[in-house]
Amino acid sequence: MAKALNEFERFLQDEVAKYKGVMMPIKAGFLERIFKKKEKGENFHPNPDDEFTWSEIGPNYSIINDYHSLFVRARTMTPYVGSEALMVEKIHPSGYLILNGHHRWAAGMRAGFKKMPISIVNLTQETDIKKMIQNSKHDKRVTLDLDEVIFCRKEKDVPEKRLSFPFNKMYKERIRLGISALLHLFAKEGYDVWIYSWNYYSMEYIKAFFHKYHVNVDGIITGTKRKEKGHSEAMRRTRELFEGHYKETIHIDRYTVTRTFTGTKNFEEYPIAS
Predict the structure, then answer these.
(1) Which residues contact 8 (CB under 8 A, 6 or more apart)?
(2) How high does pLDDT run on average in the chain?
(3) What is the pTM of this model?
């Protein structure tokens, strides 16, 4: 039995329908991404790929109520709780697509906020992947997960030397010791380096960050946390692009190195000593 939609959920469905087929991402400029600003509530658009807008799941009103209570209680504080920026992507024909912060956005609207702070990112699009593959000079690649393998996430992770000022203020993440040397080695051996991230980083941010460690990254795919709903065809095309270009892929995670060969079921797997 289908869930009955309330007024807010009908608004969400109307917004998704209004932009279906006409919405497309726009690359935000450096200054737009570097400086946080506030935008009017009507300039935000709910994300059709987020379960927040799905009729079978929808908003969690308990979370919205909690944020609303915090916003109302803290409006006189400086900075108030609502100052946490919404993660958004600039879109055509207007406004911003919400990537992270739907419940805060809904609570802010209910609390009467005329504007809310945003942080704009440029996520990897299918056209970006095509361009990166076209610019590739090799037929083999190595892939690593930014969040689980490259960045320090555990207490025992030993970091590379901290970047000097002012870059240590711009890039707060720490790379695990030895990662930059490892990527240099793969590049020397004729591998393209591809970095994946579950989080909403701008491609430009990641490329510039690695550049500070004198590492060239050939491919960057960010925002893989985006739901797969509606993206199966795009994912198939992307997979075919990789299979058509790379004959060999080495994937490194925290515990194993896996080497696969395109067009075969053959693979090699090696454990990483802890």
Answers:
(1) 59, 106
(2) 88
(3) 0.83
